[in-house]
Structures are given as C-alpha cells and as structure tokens.
Amino acid sequence: MAYSDDLRQRVLHYVHSGGSKTQAAQLFQVGLRTVHVWQAQGSHYQRGKPGPRGSRKFDRQALAKM
C-alpha cells in the first residue's frame, strides 16, 4: 500500500520535532519500519511513476540471431 506524500511529511515533521519514531508510527498508524525507511531516505525521496520500468521493445538483431 502506498502512503500519501502528505502523510509522509507529517510523520517526518513529527519525528524531527522531537517525537519518537514509535510514537509517530502509532499516532499516524503506519509501520515502525516505514518510519525508519522514510527517515533514512531523507529529502532525496522521489515517488516514481507506476508501471513497467524498462522498454517493451525487442532488439531486432538479437531476435534475428535466435
């Protein structure tokens, strides 16, 4: 399940303001591991677009060798 960016920001703000990670997990009803991961990701977090990661096109030369 993907959490909203707003929830992520509120949880991290709570922790940065002096709240414990355990309390944040209970208060916002997310997993403790999720809080740890979000904090480890820091500010360089970017949500990726859903769907296939690679190209769906095939290599014609590789196909010809087969």
Short synopsis of the structure:
The chain has 66 residues and is mainly α. It is 55% helix and 0% strand.
Euclidean distance between termini CA atoms: 41 Å
Uncertain ranges? none
Structural class: mainly alpha
From the structure provided, what is the oligomeric state, counting identical versus distinct chains?
single chain
Strand share of the residues? under 5%
Q: What does the radius of gyration come to?
A: 19 Å
Summed up, the helix count is 4
Average pLDDT value? 86
Provide the succession of SSEs: HHHH
- Characterize the largest beta sheet: strand count, sense, and whether it forms a barrel: none
Helix percentage: 40-55%
Net shape: rod-shaped
Number of strands: 0
Describe this protein's structure.
With 66 residues, the chain is an all-alpha fold. It has helices at residues 5-16, 21-28, 32-41, 60-65. The mean pLDDT is 86.
Question: Key features?
Answer:
mainly alpha; 4 helices
